[in-house]
Task: inverse folding
């Protein structure tokens, strides 16, 4: 089945404040004791959402207003730390289809694009305006436009950025590279033969 | 010929083609896997009916979930037990070599690879673990990947990757006494920031790295990712070749000389280009300790806890958040902060030289009452070497628990966890909120000898004051 072309993502948004949100925060390691990714959505940001008795803490992801959101807004260096794909998998399984942040840690970014989750960078001032707008308009749609590289929310039209290759792969429905990698096996064998190690 | 750096040479040797998204299809010569990030990838292969394309290039071990205080299966944790069995089955079904617990060669994947001689100069190496950068110590380009890319490697031995820029970080001069490789990398991250390396591979160089042993180089390369750099490497030299020689997967006989000649050719050429060059004076590096919730929030052991009014505007919120989580008072000296747990181990500092260095200082000292101190060798082979040298007894006599090999309390996917808001002096690599298994647990990263000093005094202390020998 061909992959979907992802030109834009629309949905309601939630603001998760903070810089350097690491993948341990997104999905604590103890929830990775699993052999499939099923069910990871439940544990998204678990330890900042729940206390040790399992009671809900004050967190935007626990707020009924934002419960159906599919776009996450956060700070700088989002997704730093561990390479665990469990992090974008848990975001995806919790319903998130796009992330807006200051910038992204590299492995997280690649893992997310591989799953067809656009990750767009936005400068601090625009993030602050958008955060304010999202808080006041929790029920209203936000659009992350991958094609035009802008985020639209009410009267706001804010520029955002994404590496050209990643953007193209979303727009062209080529964000999962496996088929392309599989298509040139003789060239792969040739490179393997030229290397002097097995 | 245009001079090239090591990254460029390795990249060119392994490039298959340019992909439609502008990335490169890169051949990955060695693929290492473990139980946490591989089962879903094997699942995807089964779903698509694909074989492992080059099973002889993938090697597996089990590290994250193995308990370090029980050896017989089934493990008490049924989830952990299911994971080791799944890996075992996947390796059998797809013909992958597995350094299982019963082989005596099991351990943390980034300890096992070099130990077996699998890690060699000029290679591309990937693993579903961000600390794969460790293998760069040998002059390889090594990086962490996600599970979809583990699938890509199993299916094709290639993956899509954008070319990285290269930043050379030179450290020249003499390190002060009591300053270790761990301090060098913590200092680099402190200076360049936790995302300063985004988009880069780091080339570590200078006379400090020339003198470093392979295990010291591994400690530094290991934490490249903590500075945002996906890969970090040191150019191969005689120290590198000496370390590899005679290991199980090292080239043998006539092949050895040929391999060394080839490895040498990958080293960065004199006069090659870099995207950036940074110089650090070795003398300026103090024994370094993290006080906050990311590895860049670090200070010298003789400094005071930062105050939010004294940091740059864009660091204020992060400083406040970190102080609150760590329950620390700004402005007071770091030294004297009481600790509850001391952890020596991990892919950063769980090698034989780390254990030897700590043991050398521990002799005759006792862990402070109330401190829970554990030492976890990085592999079964490290453990065996340590036992042969009598190091286990030194640790046990000092009051440490001597454990079996694994990732242990670095990320607590096993029974080794902090409880409540315990504060751990740790030789590992991450101090994120909740990293060591308790959602309110606190971590301070430092060198293994500094961990030992904290264990003995019950508080963060400059090890040089504790160990006068």
Result:
């Amino acid at each position: 089945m061909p992959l979907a072309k992802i030109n834009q993502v629309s949905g309601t948004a939630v603001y998760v404040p903070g810089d350097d949100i690491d993948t341990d925060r997104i999905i604590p390691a103890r929830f990775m004791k699993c052999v499939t990714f099923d069910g990871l959505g439940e544990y998204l940001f678990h330890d900042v959402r729940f206390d040790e008795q399992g009671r809900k803490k004050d967190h935007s992801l626990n707020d009924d207003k934002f419960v159906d959101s599919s776009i996450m807004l956060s700070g700088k260096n989002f997704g730093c730390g561990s390479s665990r794909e469990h992090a974008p998998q848990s975001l995806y399984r919790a319903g998130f289809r796009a992330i807006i942040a200051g910038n992204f840690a590299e492995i997280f970014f690649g893992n997310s694009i591989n799953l067809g989750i656009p990750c767009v960078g936005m400068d601090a001032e625009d993030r602050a305006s958008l955060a304010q707008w999202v808080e006041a308009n929790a029920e209203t749609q936000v659009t992350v436009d991958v094609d035009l590289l802008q985020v639209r929310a009410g009267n706001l039209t804010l520029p955002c950025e994404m590496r050209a290759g990643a953007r193209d792969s979303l727009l062209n429905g080529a964000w999962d590279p496996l088929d392309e990698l599989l298509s040139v096996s003789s060239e792969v064998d040739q490179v393997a033969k030229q290397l002097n190690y097995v | 010929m245009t001079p090239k750096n090591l990254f460029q040479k390795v990249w060119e040797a392994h490039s298959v083609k340019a992909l439609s998204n502008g990335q490169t299809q890169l051949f990955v010569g060695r693929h290492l896997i473990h139980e946490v990030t591989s089962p879903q990838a094997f699942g995807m292969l089964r779903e698509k009916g694909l074989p492992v394309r080059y099973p002889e290039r993938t090697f597996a071990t089990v590290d994250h979930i193995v308990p370090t205080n029980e050896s017989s299966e089934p493990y008490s944790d049924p989830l952990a037990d299911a994971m080791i069995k799944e890996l075992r089955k996947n390796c059998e079904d797809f013909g992958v070599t597995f350094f299982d617990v019963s082989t005596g060669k099991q351990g943390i994947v980034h300890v096992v690879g070099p130990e077996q001689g699998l890690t060699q100069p000029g290679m591309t190496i990937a693993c579903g673990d961000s600390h794969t950068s460790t293998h760069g110590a040998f002059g390889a380009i090594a990086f962490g990947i996600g599970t979809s890319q583990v699938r890509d490697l199993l299916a094709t031995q290639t993956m899509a990757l954008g070319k990285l820029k290269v930043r050379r970080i030179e450290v020249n001069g003499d390190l002060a006494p009591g300053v270790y490789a761990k301090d060098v990398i913590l200092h680099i991250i402190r200076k360049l920031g936790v995302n300063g390396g985004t988009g880069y591979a780091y080339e570590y160089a200078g006379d400090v790295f020339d003198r470093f042993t392979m295990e010291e180089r591994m400690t530094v390369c290991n934490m490249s990712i903590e500075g945002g750099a996906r890969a970090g490497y040191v150019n191969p030299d005689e120290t590198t070749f000496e370390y590899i020689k005679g290991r199980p997967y090292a080239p043998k006989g006539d092949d050895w000389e040929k391999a060394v000649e080839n490895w040498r050719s990958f080293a960065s050429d004199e006069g090659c280009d870099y995207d950036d060059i940074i110089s650090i004076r070795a003398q300026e590096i103090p024994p370094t300790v993290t006080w906050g919730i990311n590895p860049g929030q670090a200070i010298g052991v003789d400094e005071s806890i930062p105050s939010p009014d004294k940091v740059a505007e864009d660091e204020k919120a992060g400083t406040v958040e970190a102080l609150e989580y760590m329950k620390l008072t700004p402005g007071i000296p770091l030294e004297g902060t009481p600790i509850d747990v001391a952890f020596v181990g991990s892919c950063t500092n769980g090698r034989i030289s780390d254990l030897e260095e700590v043991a050398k200082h521990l002799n005759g000292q006792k862990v402070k009452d109330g401190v829970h101190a554990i030492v976890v060798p990085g592999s079964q082979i490290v453990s065996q070497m340590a036992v042969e040298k009598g190091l286990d007894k030194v640790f046990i006599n000092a009051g440490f628990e001597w454990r079996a090999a694994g990732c242990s309390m670095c990320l607590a996917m096993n029974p080794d966890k902090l409880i409540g808001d315990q504060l751990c002096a740790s030789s590992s690599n991450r101090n994120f909120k909740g990293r060591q298994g308790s959602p309110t647990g606190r971590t301070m990263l430092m060198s293994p000898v500094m961990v030992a000093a904290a264990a003995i005094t019950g508080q963060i202390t400059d090890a040089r004051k504790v160990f006068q020998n």
Summary: Residues 78-94 of chain B form the longest helix (17 residues).
